[in-house]
Amino acid sequence: MSPLTLLSQRIRPPLNASRFIALGVLWLAAGVGVGAVAWAYRDIIALLLNWTPALARGFALNILMGVVAMLAATVFGTLLGCLQVSLHRGLRQMAVLLTQLLRNAPWLVVVFLVMNLLPFEFQALDRWWQIPDWLKAALGLGLAGSGYVSEIVRGGIRSIPVAQWEAAASLALPRRKSLRLVILPQALRSMVPPWMSLYCAVTMATSLANLMGVEELMTSLQLHLTGQTRPDLLLPAYLYVFVAFFIYIYPISRYSRYLERKWSLYS
């Protein structure tokens, strides 16, 4: 077994019989507690399960908005990040200014500006095309997240040794081609984990679209709650939304941390 493998493993004490029994009792007690709570709130749980198909459609829109927002943020942020390491002073300063402006702007304000600046519809190919509100909100989140992607790309490029640039220059490669073929492929390893963490943050921020009238998960939940006159339903309903986001976000977050530890170990 290699030393790197030994370093990556944690030394854990063996489980004896008493610890195994205590763990089993703990899980049994937790199961009994969950069962008791479920029985006490069985009518609320049944109501939430009845709402689940409609809430799932709203949550699917949250996921779609997160994917579209990260695509937009990746495209624009990668361009800004590459310009931050440009040899042209004017382009470099402009990219740094835009990056800092987008990073320090409130996401809700950016989403509000984009949704109000983009037209309701536009004309192309001899017809009118409507821009849905969810797409406007996703583009606003993508614009807000592009500043963070820019810093991720800039940091990834700066992490590559200068010798790689010199080796590419010795092969008579132009700077753009060196960046695209030599530097960026090596920098991907350090850029993917923070990019995944940013995707988690952007996906959670899609709930801001609720304030703009987009029919995502929070909007769907509030529409269902307006037909109820039960104050005791508010906490379980919002806890249900929390669990939905947690189940989707937590595995991605854990996997990004795993990749970060793995690749930093072998770097």
Question: Explain this structure to me?
Answer:
The model has no long low-confidence stretch (mean pLDDT 83). The chain has ten helices and two strands. The chain is mainly α. It has helices at 3-8, 17-40, 42-84, 89-103, 107-117, 133-158, 162-170, 175-205, 217-225, 234-266; strands spanning 121-124, 127-130. β1 and β2 form a beta hairpin. It has a single domain (67-266), classed as MetI-like fold. The chain has a two-stranded antiparallel ribbon with strand order 1-2. It is 78% helix and 3% strand. The two termini are 18 Å apart. It is flat, with a radius of gyration of 24 Å. α3 (42-84) packs antiparallel against α8 (175-205) and α3 (42-84) packs antiparallel against α9. It comes from Pseudomonas helleri. This is ABC transporter permease subunit. The chain crosses the membrane at residues 20-41, 61-83, 104-122, 195-213, 233-252. It is found in: Cell inner membrane; Cell membrane. Its main location: membrane.
- The share of residues in extended strands comes to under 5%
Give the helix level as a range of percent.
over 70%
Structural class: mainly alpha
Kindly state the number of beta strands: 2
| Overall mean confidence score, pLDDT | 83
Q: CATH fold name, please?
A: MetI-like fold
Chart the SSEs and their pairings.
Layout lengths: L2 H6 L8 H24 L1 H43 L4 H15 L3 H11 L3 E4 L2 E4 L2 H26 L3 H9 L4 H31 L11 H9 L8 H33 L1
Antiparallel strand pairs: 1-2
Helix pairs in contact: 3-4, 3-6, 3-8, 3-9, 3-10, 4-6, 5-6, 6-8, 7-8, 8-10, 9-10
